[in-house]
Specification:
The complex is a heterodimer. Chain A is built from three helices and 19 strands. By secondary structure, chain A is mainly β. Chain A has a single domain (about 20-280), classed as Immunoglobulin-like. Chain A has a six-stranded mixed sheet with strand order 11-10-13-17-15-16. Chain A has a five-stranded mixed sheet with strand order 3-9-8-5-6. Chain A has a four-stranded mixed sheet with strand order 2-1-4-7. By secondary structure, chain B is mainly beta. Chain B contains five helices and 25 strands. Classes of the chains: A mainly beta, B mainly beta. Chains A and B meet through strand 16 and strand 18 of A and helix 2 and strand 14 of B. The complex binds copper (II) ion (CU) (2 copies). The site of one copper (II) ion has 5 residues of chain B, from loops. One copper (II) ion binds near residues 91, 128 and 269 of chain B.
Chain lengths: ~280, ~400
């Protein structure tokens, strides 16, 4: 009996320990984004060593320590950091390093290259700290000036003073009426608690606007005086990651788009760019 | 008989007694002209109220402000008398999908068609209505206006909220003359040098001199500012030092905690209710509104709103946008010292203004040199003291 109790205690303490540590991997990878008949070079954190244009988003429960091993498939070293820690790691070209991130409060936090050009180029993603059984969506918003991307891909410095983006993406897809951005879809029901984390992960500021609903701003990775406010339109600053809570009061299909309307176009064509869709059932 | 009485009573009870109906009929049109501060005019589209009191024949920019009282049922009939399809999106009013005005999820009001929007004004506050068809173009062409929902008490911001003595609303937007002149070839609103930065459709002197945009504020009074941004840029408001500004609501919702501020930024689509007060007996001053571009994070332009003030703060550099005054400032950008050409010898000082409205009086020597080493880096406007006709702009590095 005593042995049984002891093993029970051991089992629970081990599982408690285990729940506090999590291991994950990602690849620093480069390739092309095909949008509107254009190929835009970029680099992303990807799930596997094969390049795809899906941002690798990391998840952890509040209080969990994440050991994040990064494999650098690029031909230069990249220094990577996270909002939650002051240390960074330099991941050598062709090598790997592990970033250890201890999480605390729920919210969205940046994981990104320390170099501004590479961060702009796509090496910027989100660590979502949240309880596991939540409706969580992460929307990474970007603005691309293909000339700047071309220069970076050739190892040159882009001219950000002349920055004129024409390609705008939500999770590296641009909205199209006939071929909606499946990575910008939210499915839920009236009265659900739906959490959407918006990341302004490259150079522009954004102004997300919700049709149909107000949302509560519940977290930012930056100093933000709007926590607790009920908003339908709100600022998302450069490098800011804001988590909002949507509790739909009505059913319907409604867009959520950048109200800096330039950003809801693709090469000048509206609608496009940064536009997601809410599908709320009764 | 008793049954009939009960039925009649039931019919009345089904509608809350206090709920009112507010009805508008709007024409959608594409044949307007709008006068710019430069004296030129350009082509605008918009909504125009027909059949109502004070209806106007001419399209205005912005379109007329629509109002309701909280709890009202709002019915807006639109008649499209233009050559293209349009809609109305009721920005921030959280209407249902059918009335949301998005072509691919709601409706599309084609040429010659009518459509009736129905929704409830559930919250007091500041909202926007605008066309949602090819929004980049139709909005730039002028298809937008403010929608204000008043509280049940006419002098409170929202039911049970703070009271005010007077109110003004300011709707920020931009206009690209090249696009409005010729929307088929005008292109994207990126061409900054052609852009106009508007409040209530007006800019600079034109805005300042329109008496409805001049704020009257006396000691002991509380003046409500309804600030709304439907443009592409950040509207960056700076309140004068002698004015206390308290922010009470945003996007039609009371804030958890009102706060005092000297600076308030409105991103595209945002709205605020701010109450201003002053302790000064004869206060005169200006609210400075900067326009900041979101894609390069740069300053673009400034407008001023006068408070008890009818003297436009003329920076001749602004006029130089349209009328060259011949004032020449170099080097530009400057580090420690600038030379100003075009001033007469008797000018001993120049006034310099930063984008937040702070003023500095700097001596100028006989060679026309001004020491700017103590200025913080940034964008400045200069005018010759005592002169209303000579000014310029420079950047301090
Ligand atoms: Cu329209
Ligand atoms: Cu809108």
């Amino acid at each position: 009996m005593r042995v049984f109790i002891l093993s029970l205690i051991l089992f629970f303490s081990f599982s408690a320990l285990r729940s506090q540590v999590k291991y994950d991997t990602a690849y620093l990878n480069s390739g092309y984004l095909h949008i509107d008949h254009e190929d835009i070079p970029l680099a992303l954190f990807t799930e596997s060593s094969r390049f795809d244009t899906v941002d690798r988003v990391f998840h952890a429960s509040p209080g969990e320590t994440l050991h994040l091993t990064l494999y650098n498939l690029l031909d230069f070293d990249v220094e990577v950091g996270c909002d939650l820690i002051t240390e960074t790691v330099i991941v050598p070209a062709g090598g790997n390093r592990t970033l250890t991130i201890t999480t605390q409060d729920p919210g969205g936090y940046g994981v990104y290259a320390q170099n501004d050009e590479l961060k702009y180029y796509g090496l910027s993603t989100v660590l979502r700290v949240a309880k596991e059984n939540q409706h969580n969506y992460v929307w990474n918003l970007r603005a691309f000036d293909k000339e700047a991307n071309r220069r970076i891909s050739e190892g040159n410095t882009p001219d950000f003073d002349a920055f004129t983006p024409l390609i705008f993406t939500l999770n590296t897809e641009a909205f199209h009426v006939n071929q909606m951005n499946m990575r910008g879809m939210v499915n839920g029901n009236v009265n659900d608690s739906i959490y959407i984390t918006f990341a302004g992960s490259n150079i522009m500021h954004h102004a997300p606007h919700f049709h149909g609903y107000h949302v509560e701003i519940i977290h930012s990775n930056m100093e933000n005086h709007m926590i607790g406010w009920s908003k339908d339109s709100f600022p998302l600053k450069r490098d800011e990651i804001i988590t909002v809570l949507l509790v739909p009061h009505q059913p319907g299909t409604f867009p959520v788009h950048d109200h800096n309307l330039i950003s809801s176009t693709t090469n000048g064509n509206y609608p496009g760019g940064i536009m997601g869709m809410l599908h709320i059932m009764p | 008989m008793r049954l009939i009485v009960i039925l009649i009573l039931a019919a009345f009870w089904s509608e809350p007694i206090l709920a009112q109906r507010v009805e508008y009929t709007l024409n959608m049109r594409m044949d307007g002209r709008h006068e710019l501060f430069t004296g030129d005019s350009t082509h605008i589209w918009g909504f125009i109220e027909i059949g109502g009191f004070g209806s106007e024949e001419k399209l205005l920019l912005p379109s007329p402000t629509l109002t309701a009282t909280v709890g009202d049922s709002v019915i807006v009939k639109v008649v499209n008398v233009s050559d293209e399809g349009h809609t109305i999106h009721w920005h921030g009013l959280d209407v249902d999908q059918e009335n949301d005005g998005v072509p691919h999820t709601s409706d599309f009001v084609l040429t010659g068609d009518t459509f009736t929007y129905r929704f409830k004004a559930t919250h007091a506050g500041n909202f926007i209505y605008h066309c949602h068809v090819t929004t980049t173009l139709h909005l730039m062409m002028g298809m937008y206006g403010s929608f204000i929902v008043y509280s049940n008490q006419p002098d409170e911001i929202y039911p049970g909220g703070p009271r005010f003595d007077r109110q003004y609303d300011f709707l920020g937007s931009e206009l690209d003359k090249a696009l409005n002149d010729d929307f088929m070839t005008g292109g994207m609103p990126y061409s900054d040098e052609k852009r106009h930065f508007l409040l209530n459709g007006l800019q600079k002197q034109q805005l300042y001199e329109a008496s409805k945009n001049r704020i009257e504020l006396h000691k002991g009074e509380r003046v409500l500012l309804r600030l709304i941004n439907i443009g592409f840029d950040v509207n960056d408001y700076h309140f004068p030092e002698a004015v206390q500004a308290i922010v009470y609501t945003s996007d039609g919702r009371p804030l958890p905690e009102p706060f005092e501020t000297v600076n308030l930024q409105l991103y595209p689509g945002e709205r605020y209710s701010v109450i201003i007060e002053t302790d000064e007996d004869d206060f005169k001053g200006n609210i400075v509104v900067n326009y900041l571009k979101m894609y390069r994070l740069q300053y673009a332009e400034t407008n001023h709103i006068g408070i008890n003030n009818d003297v436009y703060p003329v920076y001749i550099g602004e006029q130089a946008d349209s009328r060259n005054t011949g004032l020449h400032i170099f080097p530009n950008p400057a580090i420690n010292r600038i030379t100003v050409q075009g001033l007469s010898q008797d000018v001993r000082s120049v006034q310099v203004f930063d984008t937040k409205g702070a003023q500095y009086l700097l001596p100028i020597n006989k060679a026309g040199e001004v020491d700017v080493s103590r200025l913080k880096s940034g964008f400045y406007l200069m005018r010759a003291s005592g002169s209303s006709s000579l000014s310029g702009k420079f950047i301090k590095r």
